[in-house]
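Input record (one chain):
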Amino acid sequence: HNTMCNSRPKPSYRQLSQLPSFQASIKSSLHPTRKSVITSALHNDEINLFHPKKEATVYKAMTVAKLVQSPPNYELIESFLSEVKINNKHVKCALEVSVDNSFLSAFMSNVCEGGEGGLPVFCFDASHSKHPEFSGRHFVFLQKLATNKYISLCYAIVPTEDIMYITWFFYACVRVGVDFTVGVVFVDRGHARAAILLLAKSLHIRVNLKYCTIHIIRNFATKFSFKETDPNVRIAIFRLQSSTSAAEYINHASAIDDEFGIDAMEYLCKNIHPINWVVFANNKNGNEEMKKLPDWVGSNDPYKEGWPAALFGCRSTNGAEGINNALILNEC
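The corresponding structure, as predicted from the sequence alone:
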């Protein structure tokens, strides 16, 4: 910029909260008001925050700036779990802390609410916390109902999304009564796959993992420079996923080879084992049908621990992502 530039700064709430003058205006009063903080920003940094659309930015920045001065207090999580337990006698809650009494994880289970009308189809997903006082992750574990809706069975709040915490979460699900041997679990996270392998190896807990077709489409589009919404891409991959026999699967794979090239076909057929997402491999005669495929199919997929199980028309983690979107919209 030069001396003739008349542009004005438009900081995000995190950038705003880091300004020394902004932090000083928060410190200057026990109960700083939005008006006093905005006036200070205009006077000291020439940042105009009086526009109505900036209200949310200011309030978030004030919250974050207060946290800089006083470390996060996780006592509210404990009181929240206690309140949930009091109002819902069947819900199981657990809070885990470290030796220095700092927060590690929180877990809630609603398993007994499944049962009637529940199908043996589950979804797991994770999302970033949008609450300014907590930068961790939410884990959700849902069951599909016969009405095509989903019910939340287990939920956790954790500091980070890694193999350790996902393994802990799945083990906690088992401890409260989730039986992974009777159904399938749709996931779209690489860490989840690694955690499931760890569960099988260390605790002998088997999980019948299935991949989300929507995320396969997204990854395919990114890798081969297509638009995710390209109807030709979506139709080709959905047809491959919905194949009801090995012969139909081979036909659809050949069509992908013709339309998108051999690299695209091998990405879908060599890197992803049919047992982890395709209909025919999960039918009752799935194992027999699999024997009709060439040996290279699925050979690059590190996860081949699944077994044939009915998918009940499910092929994505959209149910879990719907819950995550609700958490994000409510800034949880």
